[in-house]
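Sanity check

After download, print the first record. It should look like this:
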Amino acid sequence: MARAIALVDVNNCYVSCERLFRPDLEKRPVVVLSNNDGCVVSRSAEAKALGIPMGAPWFKIRAQATRQGVTAFSSNYALYGDMSSRFMAILGRFAPDREAYSIDECFLDLSGQPDAAERGREIRRAVRREIGLPVCVGIAPTKTLAKLANHLAKKQAEWGGVCDLGALPPVRQEALLRGIAVGEVWGVGWRLREALEGRGIRTAWDLRQADAETLRQRFSVILERTVRELRGTPCLGVELAVADRRQILSSRSFGRPVHAEVDLAAAVATYMARAAHKLRRQESLAEAVGVYIRGHRHRGGEWSERPFHGQLILPLAEASDDTLTLIRRAREALARIYRPDLSYAKAGVLLIGLVPRSGRQGSLFTPPGVLVQQARQERLMTVLDAANRRWGGGTLGPGGAGLRKGMAWAMRQDLISPAYTTAWRDLAVAKA
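Expected structure tokens:
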């Protein structure tokens, strides 16, 4: 049975999500910005045609982009996350074996299906019809080749959005791989690309023809596997289960400098609430809590060039997933590393020593009253998570986090769109 792995990828995902509820932006240049409206992280085809590069700082190009009629949005993670969930649910109907590789990419195992390319076209039509997102599908015997097939489906209109590389004759495959730069191969970053080009390996075909053992000795076993995958030998399977995280990090850069400890504490509480939710979702407990802050000293009207990095990890008396317990410990760590003479630009929290919740073991010496309190905390966290699932993230949270909007540490999102699909107040209104 011929192996057929498909990679389904949403085209310009963030921009496509924004356009869903703004049909007036079709065929117009649109960009989405990173945290704090910093850099361009998603571009429509029209924005690319204007020469706007990925990663361009918005403050540098804003004036020119505005003159060119570019519409910019702050990143709306609630919207993108919800649309991603809907996207993955649709794909699950077409193949039981699937791997969500990122928010907008998913591998499917289409092996054994009579016409993989037609299946890809069905997927493309279903996603467009049901949630309005444009996707491209690349199909091949291996995941690495499927990535390249997806690249061809996006870049070359002749494929109609679906490229089945494995179904093409060898001569045609060679011609296509010769036309793809080696830097487009999955896992080849810019440093590795430069090293490979220095050895005369400039295209995907060159890499396919290279000696795998030599590349393993010179670079890594990962590159050797890439070469073998380019030759059609599967080295990477479709991962059906997502492995639990070994640690959980939640951090953000602030919208503007933060000085007061109370503001830092509110930010830390908010980030810890997010981390604790992820912890409970994977049914784990944390044995220790970490906090880090980054700042600069201000002297004579100027900021010091050398930043301050404060970090501290504190163990918990007992492994926990309780938001309030984790916040209290995080604030203890913050109090020890905070320095009032600094201005802070970023903070983050870390949960480490993660263990399965099912293996939780109490102490023989734990007083009965503590067990009652633990049961009460578990019920509270159940209600908290249920409310946030039903009415949107952040509906209920720790009081110590304050109201995020307007806080000194809040991320700058001056151009954010409504949460059309996750908040009742932002539901789209159709007018006759």
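If your output differs, re-run the checksum step. Summary of this record's structure: Residues 33 and 40 are 5 Å apart (CA to CA).
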